[in-house]
Amino acid sequence: MNVPAGLTTGAWSIDPAHSEVGFSVRHAGISKVRGSFKDVDATLTVGSSLEDSTIVATIKTASFSSGDENRDKHVRSADFFDVEQFPEMTFVSTSHEGTGENYTIRGNLTIRGITKSVVLDAEFNGVAVDPFGATRAGIFASTTISRKEFGLTWNAALETGGVLVSDKVTISIDAAFVAPAVAAV
């Protein structure tokens, strides 16, 4: 299967200043808490076909931010990410399917040392050259996981029934990748 138009072979690096790995989770059954990870490294290695291409990402768990320092400290603690013992989350793609703008990316997500297969619905947003001459590609992808499957089991019962933190977590990735530099001849 062909790679999306405009993607050239080689290792494309994520531009962290123009990318975001975010999440949302239902809180107290009535609202959603959103946040992101500020320290993300990823490489999109484009092969001659989709089958020969890979995405590898590493996320520093201590870079978790929800906009509330008390909540952030709790989520970084052993109750959730346990950043001292598990400083990174990783994703490694295993297959890619699709054409045009719509793709399915399958891969292995590792959180707290537990690896599970996940499926991301992805949208290829195209390739553009920025005013500084860098070639960029945009990809948006999302998936929903069960946090309990990754050992994130802390919770608190509510007086009205239910629990404080939902099991379902939606992960969304809005990534800008920069093409490998072309050597002058």
Walk me through the structure.
- The protein has 1 helix and 11 strands; from the N terminus they run E-E-E-E-E-E-H-E-E-E-E-E.
- The chain is mainly β.
- It has a single domain (10-178), classed as Beta Barrel (Lipocalin), CATH 2.40.128.110.
- It has an 8-stranded antiparallel barrel with strand order 1-4-5-7-8-9-10-11.
- A hairpin with a 7-residue loop joins strand 4 and strand 5 (54-60).
- The mean pLDDT is 87.
Question: Taking Cα atoms only, what radius of gyration do you get, to the nearest Å?
Answer: 18 Å
Helix/strand order, N-terminal first? EEEEEEHEEEEE
What gross morphology would you assign?
Answer: elongated
Strand order of the largest sheet: 1-4-5-7-8-9-10-11
Alpha plus pi helix count: 1
CATH class membership: Mainly Beta
End-to-end separation in angstroms reads: 31 Å
Residues in β-strands, percent: over 45%
Number of domains: 1
Q: Name the CATH homologous superfamily.
A: Lipid/polyisoprenoid-binding, YceI-like
**Average pLDDT reading:** 87
Pfam families: YceI
Family: Belongs to the UPF0312 family.
InterPro entries: Lipid/polyisoprenoid-bd_YceI, TTHA0802/YceI-like_sf
Protein name: YceI family protein
